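debug: dumping io for the single-chain case to check the tokenizer round-trip. Nothing else runs in this session.
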Amino acid sequence: MGFIRVSELPTKSGFSAGRTKNYALMVSVRKSSKDGRRSLSFTIGHETMKRARLQIGDRMDFEMDDSSSLWRMFRVTGSKGWALSNSGGGKTNPSVSILWREGLPNVKLGREYLNDVTVDDDGIYFDFPSSLIDSNN
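debug: decoded output
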């Protein structure tokens, strides 16, 4: 028999998942309530934030390998990229959200917790979850 801690189950809003679930990176795909466009959200776990030496307000950009599922998230200077923010007022882990655009993989709604990431001076490397790829489009 195994026990499941109820406080570690994701809530409907997902906010407490950022505090209680232990992960390196969470990738989620949501649909905008305004225009129906999909957005990709990358929530960075506490230990990954420390190892990557990131802070709220840092500007982030992404690169993806055109022949594999490997992605790199990295800090940029100036006004390029997307801001690393904490919309939960300190109660959630920081995240970066980007609207889907042409050239990104077709994605479907969902969420995946990743622990297999590599952090070095060049950024955070991870495999984009195949479960979020929509192969029908």
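debug: round-trip ok. The chain has a mean pLDDT of 84.
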